[in-house]
């Protein structure tokens, strides 16, 4: 057992040891119930400190791969549920007394298209004749293909963007695989990757998204299984990737054909930037997820997955053993909303409204010397001197925002909070004053002080 593990370890850091053991567990080389070497024996054999091995064991325990039984030792855990949502939980817990909850990251209900006419036009709604019908309405698939930013080998529809990511991760990622994400990244994605025991590495971003040079250097040093990114209205920073950056990243990834690119276009039609995808350059490596929650309604619970047939087919076939398909009634509603001129105009009006809200709040904050970005989508990413103090002070003013820590794979240069700017329809100046007071502390620990005008979100 000891030799088996040491032979598998390529990187003798805590992360590398955990990943190596994770891969052995995933492959079945270390079956459930196998007793692992002691920390001291493992450390001696690898030539590292016991602390390093202990950290690796802790990572595997958090991921649910191993279990400690006191003096009996540490054993490979049987397959089962792991504790999920660690980062996601950190974003919740809004005080009940809060009058203005800007922590949610949800769209403004008043800006969603009206479903009344679409529901009326459905008639009796008899859209399913057999459990073996195609999972996607043919008419909806045709419309989706026309809208797709690349040419997908296959399309399917699932129950929202997070369901899509969950299913793609289950298909693509195995325990111990190295996975690259943006830093910062969306906390539920990080929770999902942790749940399958992936080793997550964050890549810094600039004003156009992931930095190509740093991505190339990282992949050259640490071979990865997948890259997850948000091409438009990145949550939390609002960054949208221009086509030129997509081409640069595709050029980097062309040298790493084993890396699967998974794009989460969560903002959809409310994003100001045009659709973009690395799939235009790397169709056999790119899986694109198009969500309709923020643009057409969270309760539609619909997102489309398009990409290489080998991956999308696995997702669709696995669903046949569970839910089978996403409601064709809801698919018909979405089809109507995507093709009806009135609904299309409502979504366009919402996109413009979100743009104006972001600009107004951002201008008021910049006037007060606050470093923030809100380039696209519904969120604003604001630098603060101290996250906890900012959260407490804003709560005292009846305002809730999301802490920045759960979004960070590794710490950024300063603390941040995320503000759902899309929910702010008025009172921009007063809100900006409260946000600025919480963000910038003077030398005595309270009040605002001047800052240079912000040049970027970092």
Automatic annotation (TrEMBL):
UniProt KW Cell wall biogenesis/degradation keyword: no
MF-aspect GO terms: DNA binding; DNA-binding transcription factor activity; pyridoxal phosphate binding
Domain of life (superkingdom): Bacteria
InterPro entries recorded: Aminotransferase_I/II_large (IPR004839), HTH_trans_reg/aminotransferase (IPR051446), PyrdxlP-dep_Trfase (IPR015424), PyrdxlP-dep_Trfase_major (IPR015421), Tscrpt_reg_HTH_GntR (IPR000524), WH-like_DNA-bd_sf (IPR036388), WH_DNA-bd_sf (IPR036390)
Residue ranges of every copy of the HTH gntR-type domain listed in the record: 11-79
A Pfam short name: GntR
Keywords: DNA-binding, Pyridoxal phosphate, Transcription, Transcription regulation
Similarity comment text for this entry: In the C-terminal section; belongs to the class-I pyridoxal-phosphate-dependent aminotransferase family.
Protein's name in the database: GntR family transcriptional regulator
